Every structure is written in structure tokens, then in C-alpha cells.
Amino acid sequence: MRASDQEERAMSLAHTLESFLSDRHVPYSTQSHPASTSSLGTAHSAHIAEENLAKSVLLEDDHGFLLAVLPASRRLELDRLRDELGRSLHLAPEGEMGRLFPDCCTGAVPPVGAAYGLPTVLDASLEDREEVFFEGGDHKTLVRMDGGTFLDLLESAEVVEIASESPSLCAALVVRERLYDSLLALGRAIAVPVASGARWNRRLERAVVRLALALDEHVIETEGPSGLLAEIVDQAPRLWREVDGLRNEHGELAEECGRLLELIESGASGLSLRRHAHVLVGHFEHHRHRGADLVYESFGVDVGGG
Q1: What percent of the chain has a predicted confidence (pLDDT) above 90?
Q2: For position 213, which CATH number holds?
Q3: Average pLDDT over residues 93-102
Q4: Which band of pLDDT confidence, cut at 50, 70 and 90, is reported for residue 235?
Q5: Among candidate residues 165, 193, 211, the one where a domain is terminated
Q6: Which of 77, 114, 253, 258 minimizes the number of CB atoms within 10 Å of its CB?
């Protein structure tokens, strides 16, 4: 490997992971991708098959921590895993991820538990992949290796069927990415100096309309009879109050978008519009965090909240 290649990899991968792979002479390559807030979003932005992207879920019980590895296209079946291993596992708090993976971003933990001294369990569906991708420690770099190499890397992992497909989750997360893109577009619009006057107002209006349409799509995808929120209640009935809270927030956010558009139409000052737009962005961000926490608690899927 050339020195320049080593430097590039060291800069783009978590140091612990890079050292682990280098010490074992593991053949791999890296691939950059636009920053994403979920594993499915990463697969789409990187143009790779969701089932070939391995993601990690950190679990714990009285016996210690366990890293569960499964495809991005699937959800963790925690009850099944408990039965298989005879352990009372539950999702580890987010703070533990920062402590155990200090050189990784939240939600971008590599599925190589051995590199961090963690026992690992691997979903059986990853055994037959010709190639496997996984996050290298940030939200911008993927590691790619042959499926056989990946299995050799996880040779100490217990292989169990621990995951199942969730069409509603996959569909909802794709729409969620578009909603997030629209939110970023609104942020860019209000960052432009207000001095541009009518032109600034038109740009803001386009961004708010785009956000409102993305919210409509998000609501249709999540609130339908077979949508994500219904599946969450089916998966974890105890979360019905939180689900109702998200549904209520959908209506409130739509009303806020409408009020801001009315203010733009009424000729309100740029400073007033910017202030209201900032508040709207804050409410959307709060909603994203609540939704991410709910999905993680229900499915063990980190979709990113920030």
C-alpha cells in the first residue's frame, strides 16, 4: 500500500478500526458518500444495495455489552436474540457508544466488535454476501470488502438469525431523508443575508413549500394503516403515547409551515420571517430527534437525530 493511501485511510477511518485492519493485513477499500443520518440513507446516497450494508446495534445486560450486526435493510428482533442467547439484552444508552467507541460518530459504529474488544453476534443473512460495506467511523466513509473477508474478520462472532425485513421502516426512512434534505434547504435559505429583499423572500417561500410537501409525504408514509407508526405500536405497544405525540406534531408542523407562508404573502419584514423560520427549523429538529429515539427504542435502528 502506498504511503499516500495509508494517510488517506487513516484520515477517513476511525483510528482503532484502521489499525485493526492494517495489523491483520485485511484487504479493503474505502468509498466516500454524502453525509447521511441513517444506514438506509447511506445505502441510497452511496448507491449500494441496502442488504450489503452492515450496521451495528449496541446491546447490554448484566453480563456486559454485545454488538449485533445486521443488514441495513432489516430490523433487529430483540426478543428472538434474547431467546437464542438466553440473555436479557436491551439497547445500550447512547452515552455508552461514545465511551466504547471514542473515535466514532454516533450512528457510524463499525460492525467489527473485535477491534473494540466487544463480543459480536452476526445475523445469518450476511453470510452469503459477495461484498459487504460498513461505516468507517464517521458518516461520510464506507469500508468495502469481499463477503468472505468480512466473515473472516468476524470469525469469532456467533451467527444467528436475529433480524427481519421491515418494508414500512425502509420506506419511511427513505422519505425521512428527503424531509431532512428539505429542512437543510430551508436552513440555507435563511442563512442568506436578508438585504436581498424580494429575492430573499421568494427563496424562503420556495424552501418552505418544499418542506411542507416533504412533510406531507412523510405523514402519508408513516401514518397509513400499514405505515411505520402502526408498526411501532404493533412492535412495542407501550409506545402508543409517544406515537400519538408524533402524529399530533405532524399537524402542528404543517400549520406552522402554512403560517410562515401566510407571513411571506403578507409582506412581513425579512427579519421577522427569518425569526419565524428559525423557530420552525427548531421544531422540525425536535421532531426528528423524537422520531429517531422512538424508532431506536422500537426496532434497534439508529436513524440519526441530529
Answers
A1: 58
A2: 1.20.120
A3: 89
A4: low
A5: 165
A6: 258
Largest CA distance in the chain: 65
Report the relative pairing of strands 64-71 and 53-61 from DSSP bridges: antiparallel
Instruction: Compute how many other C-beta atoms are within 10 angstroms of the C-beta atom of residue 83.
Output: 11
Residues 159 and 174 in one domain: no
Supply the range of the domain harboring residue 231.
Answer: 167-299
Calpha distance 53→254 (Å, rounded): 34
Indicate whether 231 belongs to any domain.
yes
Q: Are residues 157 and 193 in the same domain?
A: no
290: which 3 cell numbers? Answer: 423524537
Kindly tell me if the per-residue pLDDT of 259 is higher than 90. yes
Residue 305 lies in a domain: no
Single out the residue in 147, 165, 183 at which a domain terminates.
165
The DSSP result for the chain, as a single string, is: --HHHHHHHHHHS-HHHHHHHHHTT---EEEE----SSHHHHHHHHT--GGGEEEEEEEEETTEEEEEEEETTEEE-HHHHHHHHT---EEPPHHHHHHH-TTS-TT---S-GGGGT--EEEEGGGGG-SEEEEE-SSSSEEEEEEHHHHHHHTTTSEEE--EEE-HHHHHHHHHHHHHHHHHHHHHHHHHS-GGGTHHHHHHHHHHHHHHHHHHHHHHHHHHSTTSHHHHHHHH-GGGHHHHHHHHHHHHHHHHHHHHHHHHHHHT--HHHHHHHHHHHHHHHHHHHHHHHHHHHHHH-------
